């Protein structure tokens, strides 16, 4: 039996297009990033996939500070 769920893949993998939701899903999963960071990378570098990848590598997401443990709580 054929798997009814197939992941859509853009025809041109050299350009990051995010006009439709499936494209956003594809690229955020492919590049392991969020939609916000993906959009910012495209806005700053253009849609070339290599440029977007480079930007994401050079601009890692900010780290969240560790939450201090509250005394007495378990």
Task: Summarize the structure in words.
The termini are far apart. The chain has helices at 21-31, 35-45, 49-58. 43% of the residues lie in helices and 0% in strands. The model has no long low-confidence stretch (mean pLDDT 89). It is flat.
Give the topology string: H per helix, E per strand.
HHH
Q: Helical content, roughly?
A: 40-55%
Largest sheet features: none
Distance between the termini: 50 Å
The amount of beta strand, in percent, is under 5%
Features:
flat, 0% strand, 3 helices, single chain, 74 residues, mainly alpha
SSE blueprint and pairings:
Elements: H1 21-31, H2 35-45, H3 49-58
Helix pairs in contact: 2-3
Give a quick precis of the structure.
By secondary structure, this protein is mainly α. The protein is 43% helix and 0% strand. The chain starts with 20 loop residues before the first helix and ends in a 16-residue tail after the last helix.
């Amino acid at each position: 039996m054929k798997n009814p769920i197939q992941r859509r893949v853009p025809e041109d993998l050299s350009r990051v297009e995010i006009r439709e939701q499936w494209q956003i899903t594809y690229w955020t999963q492919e590049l392991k990033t969020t939609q916000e960071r993906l959009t910012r990378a495209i806005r700053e570098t253009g849609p070339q996939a290599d440029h977007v990848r480079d930007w994401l590598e050079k601009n890692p997401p900010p780290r969240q500070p560790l939450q201090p443990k509250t005394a007495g709580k378990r």
